[in-house]
């Protein structure tokens, strides 16, 4: 069969799913089921895939959906609710708000840096929802806060939710995860450097807003990119987003604190209700950050930096076997 026809058939289920969700506004679970049926029909008719292989593929997809994706979603919901119940989110919001009264710097700190960390630790919407809420509480216009946070969350999603997208891709294409992680970051490098300027322009009603914060915006992108790439090529997909967001957060916060220029009135945060009036002790700050710090520490302990722990976990892991039938003259074990 002609390769272009095969390509078109392969892309068709994805296009149908997008059409059903975005154009027809069909509920996602219904759109996914229709897409699955279309995929099964195509695989049977055009690729002559055996029923055993199709069944194994579906079972594999279900298990992959439950572990690790659903597990990470549950963890993200739990950590977010815990932050709300303990008022840790309020502490973090006030700490970030107290760094600068400049909206342009605040959007870098909250949407880009803190949002990037949330994407690394939890993902699945938290990295957009939480920054939007904080920005609105600080007096930002809701629409601008939403657009800026959505744009800021484009690049981090490649390594979101503990690097699941790249880890699963490396597994499927049988490539070293460190090599693939480095390649992904290199492909996104230009966007990583440019997007801080874009979100500043969104908040500031145009690229004229970059004047006065050009240096801090440039350093923000660089401080995200370099740690991400270094960690990716040495440790894999789980930690690059953590490294980039934490380093950029520290660097931008330090630059903002040492900044001597007065904030122009057009970009000054004037919402008195969001100004910091109290002081938080080290213990309060630690408690507020504890859940995300624990996530980071556990992931770090399971990384190649600690081969003994990684080896121990590998010994107790299990891999289900999915039998595949003879297909196209070759036999696949699992």
From TrEMBL:
Pfam family name, one: Lactate_perm
Keywords tagged on the record: Cell inner membrane, Cell membrane, Membrane, Transmembrane, Transmembrane helix, Transport
Spans traversing the lipid bilayer: 6-24, 31-53, 65-84, 105-138, 184-204, 213-233, 239-256, 285-306
InterPro entries per the UniProt record, alphabetical: Lactate_perm (IPR003804)
Topological type in the membrane: Multi-pass membrane protein
Protein family according to the UniProt entry: Belongs to the lactate permease family.
Protein name: L-lactate permease
Species whose genome carries this gene: Shewanella algae
């Amino acid at each position: 069969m002609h390769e272009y026809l095969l390509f078109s058939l392969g892309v068709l289920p994805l296009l149908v799913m997008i059409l059903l969700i975005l154009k027809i506004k069909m509920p996602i679970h219904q759109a996914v089921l229709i897409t699955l049926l279309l995929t099964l029909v195509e695989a049977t008719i055009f690729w002559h895939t055996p029923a055993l292989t199709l069944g194994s593929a579906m079972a594999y997809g279900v298990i992959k959906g439950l572990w690790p994706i659903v597990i990470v979603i549950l963890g993200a919901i739990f950590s977010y609710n815990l932050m709300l119940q303990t008022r840790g989110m309020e502490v973090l919001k006030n700490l970030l708000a107290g760094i600068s009264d400049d909206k342009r710097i605040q959007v870098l700190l909250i949407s880009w840096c803190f949002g990037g960390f949330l994407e690394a630790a939890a993902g699945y919407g938290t990295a957009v929802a939480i920054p939007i809420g904080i920005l609105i509480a600080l007096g930002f216009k809701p629409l601008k806060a939403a657009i800026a946070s959505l744009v800021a969350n484009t690049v981090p999603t490649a390594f979101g939710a503990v690097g699941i997208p790249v880890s699963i891709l490396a597994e499927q294409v049988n490539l070293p995860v460190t090599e693939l992680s480095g390649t992904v970051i290199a492909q996104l490098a230009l966007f990583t450097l440019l997007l801080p300027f874009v979100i500043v322009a969104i908040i500031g009603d145009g690229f004229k807003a970059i004047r006065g914060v050009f240096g801090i915006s440039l350093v923000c992108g660089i401080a995200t990119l370099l740690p991400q790439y270094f960690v990716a090529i040495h440790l894999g997909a789980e930690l690059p987003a953590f490294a980039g967001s934490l380093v950029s957060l520290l660097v931008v916060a330090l630059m903002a604190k040492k900044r001597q220029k007065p904030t122009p009135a057009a970009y000054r945060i004037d919402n008195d209700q969001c100004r910091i009036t109290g002081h938080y002790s080290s213990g309060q700050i630690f408690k507020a950050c504890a859940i995300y710090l624990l996530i980071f520490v556990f992931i770090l302990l399971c990384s190649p930096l600690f081969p003994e722990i990684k080896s121990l976990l590998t010994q107790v892991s299990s891999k289900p076997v999915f039998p595949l039938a003879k297909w196209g003259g070759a036999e696949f074990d699992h």
